[in-house]
């Protein structure tokens, strides 16, 4: 019998507890096992620590997702989505009011508050925070900061320079 299911880790490993195959399994249990195996595994993890050494994190924090500066920044991020991918970036949008999300995945208000507190920020702060692949905070700045400033800062980082050299030597394939 299936007694539980757990998803964890940056590779989103699915662990099924119990047996889906042996013995006399009910029709529901078999369906549940198949459905569990079909769950999307490309859903981003919410915990920022899950991305150390694999992603650069950009936190966009504001009390309300409808603020003008947040809208401008979101349009800029959307316009430069390929540059975000190229730099191994994941965007956290955390708001006290309105929708918070990691990438395209919604985040509960409680989880957004926990992440905000982990960064040492208050609910009414309006700030961009850049976290490097090493997990260190590289920048805290206002929401008026241009995404091009962020890209320049990342491109000047030793780890990013090494990534660009490696990409150039491999003929552009990554």
- Principal-axes geometry comes out as globular
Number of helices: 6
Kindly estimate the percentage of residues that lie in beta strands according to DSSP. 25-35%
Category from helices, strands and their pairing? alpha+beta
Strands, count: 8
The Rg value, from CA coordinates, equals: 20 Å
Weakly predicted, low-confidence segments: 1-43
Largest beta-sheet details: 6 strands, mixed
Put the structure in a nutshell:
With 174 residues, the protein is α+β, with helices and mostly antiparallel strands. It has helices spanning 27-37, 68-79, 81-86, 109-118, 147-155, 158-169; strands spanning 2-8, 13-18, 56-64, 89-97, 100-102, 105-107, 127-131, 137-141. The protein is globular, with a radius of gyration of 20 Å.
Write up what this structure looks like.
- There is one protein chain.
- By secondary structure, this protein is an alpha+beta fold.
- The chain contains six helices and eight strands.
- Strand 1 (2-8) and strand 2 form a beta hairpin.
- The longest helix is centred in the middle third of the chain and has 12 residues, at 68-79.
- It starts with a strand and ends in a 5-residue tail after the last helix.
- 18% of the residues are buried.
- Mean pLDDT is 80; it is low at 1-43.
């Amino acid at each position: 019998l299936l007694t539980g299911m757990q998803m964890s880790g940056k590779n989103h490993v699915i662990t099924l507890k119990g047996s889906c195959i042996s013995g006399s399994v009910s029709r529901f249990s078999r369906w549940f096992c198949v459905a569990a195996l079909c769950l999307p595994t490309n859903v981003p993890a919410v915990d920022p620590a899950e991305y150390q050494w694999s992603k650069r994190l950009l936190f966009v924090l504001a009390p309300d997702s409808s603020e003008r500066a947040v809208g401008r920044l979101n349009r800029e991020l959307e316009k430069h989505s390929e540059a975000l991918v190229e730099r191994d970036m994941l965007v956290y949008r955390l708001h006290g009011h309105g929708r918070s999300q990691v990438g395209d995945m919604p985040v509960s208000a409680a989880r957004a508050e926990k992440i905000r507190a982990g960064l040492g920020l208050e609910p009414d702060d309006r700030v961009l925070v850049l976290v490097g692949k090493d997990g260190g905070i590289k920048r805290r700045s206002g929401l008026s900061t241009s995404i091009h400033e962020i890209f320049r800062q990342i491109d000047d980082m030793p780890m990013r320079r090494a990534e660009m050299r490696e990409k150039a030597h491999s003929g552009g394939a990554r």
